[in-house]
Recover the amino acids of this structure.
């Protein structure tokens, strides 16, 4: 057996702002590899692989462990999505286990004031998703896979620098709920790096899941304790919410980019935005223009692409059980070209990022709608859903062809958007709604590949750091209600609905085999971060460490600035200012820009190389 190759996380904690140009070593492997945000999770994944488990077994084990040892970002009180590639059949699957709103919802929920309360809690999906993955694609029993997580919860583990810093930064939040405070504080003071974090009640809940599987969480004593605890904290969760929750097993969204096949998360997660962004960028030779750290033109094109992608996501993406997402149009090459042609190559257009206009994906959707179905699509955001095509009398009758119908729907969207924009201008500034921005999102991502080439890219979350800050039965619960929009768009709150999310676990295939596994935490920045890393690898042939350490940038429709990490050349910064971009520059590397985990597979010799983001306390283990 080959010697275990471990990249020490201590180095990253001591040197959080390693420059892009410094030397580094890449973790290699041929038998298996895991890249996660915590050493114990990565080591757990490899331990499971060495016990004969496959990539799904290892990913599920690591996902349960990461919820214990990185509790600020995810856990069994949250939700997520898992992208799976099975080598033998060359098939790919996507499990959507994101949180859903309860059947009884508080329509007056205020995400700014009630995020850290029981009112923010949605139905957790993590246990349903992970147990479903193990049942359908795993090879080891649940008890074996869950044993490491139970052990770390029961016996404890030393708090690392990243978690200690987050506990300190969020001390006030962690005092809101007594059960939460009992875990993370010591007589009112935040636990510190090196202290042992023991979660006895969480271990008991994990043991119930180990014994009874899915039902150990969604039925019986644990479920009742969660329901009672959420209600005591002002929430509306019922037993039927938990009993009826099911993770959704389906297929990933598929696209292509410069000869590579792109697999990514389904809706209402953000795979469509990843594919749309790549379709836009495929229209320009980025390699010829030069890397964005040295080319203002490249950075400008990518930043303008972000604006188009995020704007279309806001207006056209929501839970498909409640809104007919024009996926074919959003992900079509033709529409990508149309959105690219909307980019002004010389300056941001319109100048204000917030004034970015929606596109017209309906024209490219190639789906036949009945008039009744189309009317349902375009009335999602009107009060009492009483609007109809009759309200838009400037348009002609319903068309016969798919393109005519798509144009018609696009036109109605444009009219609705114009009317809503005019209404917003009339409101006083203090009455403006909180817009659709997943700020301060705390999430986690992990990648695993085994000796046979089975691969998993998985992202899961609690919402913001430490979720709702409410702990019941040892389970730190999500603040998923905060991911719904407060203004009219497909992401408005309804009962038993999934909020839109930026998570986008992605796998790139080359010749029908995995070439790159990638994903990131980071709230609304996830889409921009994943797109940049893909460009770094696929356009500029960077190795995984180069691609991960490269400076990042971010903007979108609901931003006032183009955010830049340090490391972008001064000449590029000067040119961007001349173009009219409003810049906000960060020193060093900042976790604002995500925490990418990725694994690349050499198509010639099959060797694995991995990277864990220096912006967070990640580690790669390979052998």
């Amino acid at each position: 057996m080959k010697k275990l190759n471990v990249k020490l996380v201590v180095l990253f904690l001591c040197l959080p702002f390693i420059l892009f140009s410094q030397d580094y070593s890449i973790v290699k492997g041929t038998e298996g590899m895991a890249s996660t945000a915590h050493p114990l999770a990565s080591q757990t994944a490899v331990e499971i692989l060495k016990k004969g488990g496959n990539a799904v077994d290892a990913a599920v084990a690591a996902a349960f462990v990461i919820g214990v040892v990185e509790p600020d970002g995810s856990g069994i009180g949250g939700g997520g999505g898992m992208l799976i590639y099975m080598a033998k059949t060359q098939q790919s699957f996507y499990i959507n286990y994101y949180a859903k709103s309860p059947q009884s919802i508080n329509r007056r929920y205020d995400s700014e004031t009630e995020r850290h309360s029981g009112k923010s809690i949605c139905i957790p999906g993590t246990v349903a998703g992970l147990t479903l993955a193990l049942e359908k694609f795993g090879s080891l029993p649940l008890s074996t896979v869950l044993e490491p997580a139970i052990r770390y919860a029961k016996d404890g583990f030393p708090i690392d620098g990243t978690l200690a810093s987050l506990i300190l930064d969020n001390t006030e939040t962690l005092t809101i709920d007594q059960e939460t405070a009992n875990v993370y504080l010591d007589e009112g003071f935040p636990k510190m790096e090196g202290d042992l974090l023991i979660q006895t009640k969480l271990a008991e809940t994990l043991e119930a899941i180990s014994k009874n599987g899915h039902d150990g969480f969604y039925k019986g004593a644990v479920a009742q304790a969660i329901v009672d605890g959420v209600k005591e904290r002002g929430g509306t969760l019922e037993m039927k919410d938990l009993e009826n929750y099911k993770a959704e097993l389906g297929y990933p969204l598929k696209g292509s980019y410069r000869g590579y096949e792109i697999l990514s998360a389904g809706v209402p997660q953000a795979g469509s935005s990843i594919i749309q962004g790549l379709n836009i960028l495929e229209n320009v030779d980025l390699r010829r223009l030069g890397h964005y750290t040295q080319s203002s033109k490249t950075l400008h094109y990518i930043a303008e692409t972000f604006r188009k992608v995020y704007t279309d996501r806001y207006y056209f993406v929501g839970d498909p059980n409640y809104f007919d997402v024009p996926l074919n149009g959003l992900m079509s090459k033709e529409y990508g070209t149309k959105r690219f042609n909307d980019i002004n190559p010389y300056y941001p257009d319109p100048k204000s990022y917030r004034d970015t206009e929606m596109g017209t994906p309906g024209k490219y959707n190639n789906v036949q709608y009945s008039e009744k179905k189309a009317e349902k699509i375009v009335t999602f955001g009107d009060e009492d859903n009483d609007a109809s095509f009759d309200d838009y009398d400037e348009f002609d009758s319903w068309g016969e062809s798919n393109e005519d119908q798509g144009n018609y729907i696009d036109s109605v969207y444009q009219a609705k958007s114009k009317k809503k924009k005019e209404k917003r201008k009339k409101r006083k500034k203090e009455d403006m709604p909180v817009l659709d921005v997943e700020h301060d999102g705390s999430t986690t991502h992990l990648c695993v590949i085994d000796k046979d080439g089975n691969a998993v890219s998985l992202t899961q979350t609690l919402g913001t750091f430490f979720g709702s800050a409410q702990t019941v039965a040892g389970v730190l619960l999500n603040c998923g209600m905060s991911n719904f929009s407060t203004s009219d768009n497909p992401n408005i709150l309804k009962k038993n609905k999934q909020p839109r999310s930026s998570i986008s676990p992605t796998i790139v295939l080359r010749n029908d085999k995995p070439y790159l596994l990638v994903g990131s935490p980071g709230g609304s920045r996830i889409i921009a971060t994943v797109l940049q890393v893909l460009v770094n690898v696929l356009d500029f042939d960077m190795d995984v460490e180069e691609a991960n350490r490269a400076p990042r940038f971010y903007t979108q429709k609901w931003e006032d600035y183009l955010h830049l990490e340090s490391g972008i050349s001064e000449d590029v910064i000067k040119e961007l200012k001349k173009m009219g971009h409003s810049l906000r520059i960060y020193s060093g590397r900042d976790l604002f820009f995500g925490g990418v985990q990725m694994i690349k597979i050499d198509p010639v010799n099959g060797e694995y190389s991995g990277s864990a983001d220096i912006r967070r306390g990640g580690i790669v283990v390979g052998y």
